[in-house]
């Protein structure tokens, strides 16, 4: 049975009991509308911790666009059934007032890695992420936290935050789960029309082609320009960024130096998709 907990105080009591018996607690922070990508994190948590908490909180502070927040898919009953099937101990699903009570006045802000790409295109997004993740670490007291490589920049922001603030949690990055046609699983994919869904895998294909060309020695700019052209020709409205960057510092790279990462954000219809791969 997965127990649903909505208050930080009830969660604290639950976790204190686990810790008295020496259990290692793992947490998987999510915004719900769970898919196999999220469940792969829950399974990693299950295999690397004694107790597993999955959190579902659609965090208003990390949405720079109110429309996006309003349209964000929510289906807690379905999510709970999936978590139950995977043996998750607790679903922590606090309401906005539990996370941001009257008078809330703090903000966690990570500089550097949160500046470019998502940081530049979604002002305030990573402050929202860093703040809520810090709170979730405090509320869950977890020793291990599982994040997807799907959100590569977010993973680097969380790693930086944990190091900088001496938060006693071990951050574990998990590989991106994809549909069989290569599209990275995302809660936002349900908002794609059938026609858009057929176009969407072109994003990953263009990334793979660019990564291969760069590995084979093509000039980085030429490879990125070709990929950008392919994405637009496939039917995407815009490419917000398509960059080759140092995988950890996220500094832009003009030539290939390992470890490098190719990262993209592109808009299809009114859905913004992000993806990244190792080069
Ligand atoms: P979200 O609910 O989108 O905020 O995502 C919650 C966590 O699931 C984050 O750590 C994401 O990186 C991770 N995640 C989302 N999609 C995938 C995926 N396709 N594969 C692996 N992890 C994912």
TrEMBL record:
Annotated protein name in UniProt: Pantothenate synthetase
Active-site residues, record numbering mapped to chain: 38
Catalytic activity as recorded in UniProt: (R)-pantoate + beta-alanine + ATP = (R)-pantothenate + AMP + diphosphate + H(+)
Miscellaneous notes: The reaction proceeds by a bi uni uni bi ping pong mechanism.
Residue positions binding ATP: 31-38, 148-151, 185-188
Gene3D superfamilies: HUPs (3.40.50.620), Pantoate-beta-alanine ligase, C-terminal domain (3.30.1300.10)
Enzyme kind, highest EC tier: ligase
Chief site of localization: cytoplasm
Known EC number: 6.3.2.1
Zinc-finger listed as a keyword: no
GO molecular-function term, one example from the UniProt record: ligase activity
Subcellular location field: Cytoplasm
Binding-site list for beta-alanine: 62
Subunit structure: Homodimer.
Keyword Nucleotide-binding among UniProt keywords: yes
Described function: Catalyzes the condensation of pantoate with beta-alanine in an ATP-dependent reaction via a pantoyl-adenylate intermediate.
Family: Belongs to the pantothenate synthetase family.
PANTHER family assigned to the protein according to its UniProt record, in alphabetical order: CYTIDYLATE KINASE/PANTOATE-BETA-ALANINE LIGASE, PANTOATE--BETA-ALANINE LIGASE
Keywords attached to this entry: ATP-binding, Cytoplasm, Ligase, Nucleotide-binding, Pantothenate biosynthesis
Metabolic or biological pathway: Cofactor biosynthesis; (R)-pantothenate biosynthesis; (R)-pantothenate from (R)-pantoate and beta-alanine: step 1/1
Residues engaged in binding (R)-pantoate: 62, 154
């Amino acid at each position: 049975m997965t127990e649903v907990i909505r208050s930080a105080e009830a969660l604290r009591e639950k976790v204190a009991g686990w810790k008295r018996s020496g259990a290692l607690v793992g947490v998987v922070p999510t915004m719900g509308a769970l898919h196999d990508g999220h469940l792969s994190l829950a399974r990693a948590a299950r295999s690397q911790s004694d107790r597993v908490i999955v959190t579902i909180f659609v965090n208003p502070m990390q949405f720079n666009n109110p429309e996006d927040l309003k349209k964000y898919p929510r289906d807690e009953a379905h999510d709970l059934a999936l978590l139950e099937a995977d043996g998750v101990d607790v679903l922590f699903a606090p309401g906005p007032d539990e996370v941001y009570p009257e008078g809330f006045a703090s903000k966690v802000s990570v500089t550097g890695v949160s500046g470019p790409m998502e940081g530049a295109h979604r002002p305030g997004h990573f402050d929202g992420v860093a703040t809520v993740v810090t709170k979730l670490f405090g509320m869950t007291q977890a020793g291990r936290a599982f994040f997807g490589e799907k959100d590569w920049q977010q993973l680097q922001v969380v790693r930086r935050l944990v190091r900088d603030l001496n938060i006693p949690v071990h951050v574990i990055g998990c590989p991106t789960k994809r549909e069989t046609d290569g599209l990275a699983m995302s809660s936002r994919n349900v908002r794609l029309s059938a026609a858009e869904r057929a176009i969407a895998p072109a994003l990953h294909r263009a990334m793979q082609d660019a990564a291969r060309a760069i590995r084979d020695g093509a000039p980085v700019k030429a490879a990125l320009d070709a990929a950008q052209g392919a994405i637009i020709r496939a039917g995407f409205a815009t490419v917000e960024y398509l960059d080759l960057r140092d995988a950890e510092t996220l500094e832009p790279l003009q030539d290939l130096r390992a470890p490098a990462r190719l990262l993209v954000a592109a808009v299809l219809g009114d859905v913004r998709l992000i993806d990244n791969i190792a080069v």
